[in-house]
Amino acid sequence: MAGGELTHFDRKGKARMVDVSAKEDTLREAVARAEIAMRPETLNIIETGGISKGDVLGVARVAGIMAAKEAGRLIPMAHPLNLTGVSVDFRLQSPDRVLIEARVRTTGKTGVEMEALTAAGVAALTVYDMCKSIDRGMVISSIRLVEKSGGKSGTYRREGEEPWEG
Fold it and tell me: Which residues are known to be catalytic?
């Protein structure tokens, strides 16, 4: 297996939360992305603000930010973290999809990959929830870590992923 051992299990195979108390505090950042495909008419309605529930992407942004803050409660072996920054951004990709990017930062002893992945996933779920009355066939896909930095393992960048500009 690339990257070494599964750290959330002890030598006897029992689940555990990794003890990070001896690690150095460093600046840590992670970026995750997700996609949600839909009918072209649904994307047009999101773009023009025609959903009766309100601003779809605005609500999804807030949901993603809130989700990042809750990752330590949702994922059993994730540490509760004091996040210093969370942003969730969207790109409308014509004709039929919304691209989502979540960026999370902290200064601490463990990374924020799970927080970024949770933010991207919940933002996508929120788009689905906001639009399901007009398009139940939407598909959420490609929830993935794009990059992470900080800590002993250093920097990771997924091949083929281009940075988003402003």
Answer: 129
What pTM was estimated for this model as a whole? 0.91
Helices (H), 8-160: 40-48, 56-74, 113-131
Continuous segment of H or E residues that includes residue 30 = strand 26-37
Higher pLDDT, 113 or 11: 113
Q: Quick one: which H or E segment has residue 108?
A: strand 97-108
Q: What is the edge-to-edge ordering of all strands in the sheet holding 97-108?
A: 85-93, 97-108, 26-37, 139-149, 156-157
* Number of Cβ atoms within 10 Å of the Cβ of 85: 12
Tokens of 141: 């896909």
- Three-state DSSP class for residue 102: strand
